[in-house]
Design a protein that fits this description.
- By secondary structure, the chain is mainly α.
- Helices cover about 65% and strands about 0% of the residues.
- It is elongated.
- The termini are far apart.
């Protein structure tokens, strides 16, 4: 059985989405029960394919999440307010800001981890300055 951990190294975000979509489309077109023939030629997924589709959904979510805070930093650099970023993430400006600051803290901690690229003090200071505060900022 394929697990997200097994599949994560085998697929890029793009290839994971493509495989997931192929399986999901086939699943949607196949007959849902004995009363419907489904779309012509649509073959129902096997158990292994169904489990792969579930695992790929998790892989896609993980891979999309990895770059989220880099995108938040880019949005700040482009002049977006925390209210705008929160809205884009479907959350509040405070929650978006807090999540981003936890990510900055994590990058600072990783500077001494072997095999991981972490930020030095200057990087952390620059990231915190760019993040600013969520309150008192006008819409940009």
């Amino acid at each position: 059985m394929a697990t997200p951990d097994d599949l994560e190294g085998q697929f890029t975000l793009l290839t994971a989405v493509a495989r997931y979509e192929a399986l999901r489309t086939r699943d949607a077109l196949a007959a849902p029960d004995d009363h419907d023939d489904g779309a012509a030629g649509a073959v129902p997924l096997t158990r292994a394919e169904t489990l792969e589709m579930l695992a790929l959904g998790e892989v896609v979510a993980r891979k999309a999440g990895y770059g989220r805070q880099l995108s938040v930093r880019s949005a700040r650099r482009a002049g977006a307010s925390w209210a705008q970023i929160g809205a884009a993430l479907g959350t509040s400006k405070q929650a978006a800001w807090e999540t981003h600051n936890r990510w900055i803290d994590e990058q600072a901690r990783r500077q001494d981890d072997p095999g991981h690229w972490g930020w030095d003090d200057a990087d952390v200071t620059a990231a915190r300055a760019l993040a600013g505060e969520p309150d008192g900022e006008g819409e940009k």
